[in-house]
Amino acid sequence: MLNRRFLREKTLQTLYAYYQSGGEDALVFEKNMTFGVRKLYELYIRLASVIVELSDYAQLRIEEGKQKHIPTEAEKNPNLKFVQNRVIEQLRNNPVFIQKSKDYKISWKQHEDLFRGLYQVLLKTSSYQTYMDDPESSYENDKAFICGFFKRKISNNSNLYHHFEEQSIFWTDDFDNVAFWLLKSLKNAEENADLLHPEDQFINAEDLEFAKKLFRQTILNNEEYTPVIENYLAENWELDRTPLIDVLVMKMAIAEMCHFPSIPVKVTLNEYIEIIKQFSTDNSYIFVNGVLNQLSIDYVKQGKIKKSGRGLI
User: Fold this and answer.
1) Which of 142, 190, 144, 177 is nearest to 47 (CA)?
2) What's the predicted TM-score (pTM) here?
């Protein structure tokens, strides 16, 4: 489920930290990268648990309303549409969710303030009132509401983000990506079917090996790639004036073109150009794009890039 773009970005971040630290003990950095990637599945499950916990909190408020000395008519006969939402119940009863919640010891008992705030956001959201007043009751209707509320109010909630930021340094940069993957799971949900991805589907062993190999090949060939890049620099431009992030992107791209025969050159070029747009400047994008395009053409002609499979060049 993790896409290669994300894994390239994690590899770039790890390489940057590695070289900034002085370039010692690459194995430690590789292990940290692998651990960080695997840790994302826990965040995936914990984010899913937020939806279930919010439903539980709403149910608690309903029960408290009924126990009032003089409850209102609405409190005596509450609208149960949200707490009986089919997708939330499907999530709550999902075997993967149940087991992993136990494994990760997920508990929100000490965070009532967080859910009080989320519940107030829920009550004030116009789509919530529309949903609650809608006489239609269907799985698709329930799913549409949960997806919309998660996307607009949960995944961008600053208090929730800061909570996860405090829980693990590995989640700081990856919250948005994991929220996107959970939203995708919710959107693809079908009644009476598995809702969440098992861990071995979420983190594919082959993709994880891709990241480790890319990390290793970039380091192993670092000294070889340095003069290669210098040869393609514009006149009067020196490598030591080039930002480290730009240099690493180029070295990763060369490593991928030369050591991953099943990945088309065009795919590699497109991926790293998008990455440099995200992590560096507009000038860097133009510069790196020019270097990598010319280098790839020359490497193909020289036979340094060899691809297997039809149409991979």
Assistant:
1) 177
2) 0.89
